[in-house]
Specification:
about 70% helix; about 140 residues; mainly alpha; 4 helices
């Protein structure tokens, strides 16, 4: 980060991440009588994928803005946390009149996995470019 660039706002990013996670919990624990008209058949899996992709992305964004080192092992740890949370989230839905679904959980996991792979790749290319600039 150059001296003239704006400083990341870790508190704002943390609130965005935690706030999103809370909204995600609320949304996934509401009972819907039927799927909204704009969701095509099977489209709920794409929504699950997107919701969890964004969750993982926002978590990375917070950690990065807070100046925390983001290693592959930390990305994998957060991936495991998101996977466990997604399973817990699906299990809890049975208590609010919804059905736990392995395919919904798989879509959640896929969203987290793709986000984690993208972020790992992004971190790898950033580390390589930082290494190259130090060796000059």
């Amino acid at each position: 980060m150059s001296p003239s660039s704006p400083r990341p706002q870790p508190l704002r990013n943390m609130c965005l991440w935690i706030g999103y996670w809370l909204v995600l919990f609320i949304i996934t624990h509401r009972r819907f009588e039927s799927a909204p008209d704009f969701v095509p058949p099977g489209g709920d899996k794409a929504i699950h994928f997107l919701l969890y992709f964004v969750l993982a992305w926002l978590g990375w964004r917070y950690l990065r803005s807070a100046g925390r080192s983001i290693t592959l092992s930390k990305l994998m740890l957060w991936f495991a946390i998101y996977v466990a949370y997604a399973a817990f989230d699906e299990w809890l839905q049975q208590f609010v009149g919804r059905h736990a679904s392995v395919t919904d959980w798989a879509a959640d996991v896929a969203g987290c996995l793709v986000a984690t792979l993208v972020l790992a790749r992004r971190g790898q290319s950033r580390t390589l470019s930082e290494h190259d600039s130090k060796s000059d």
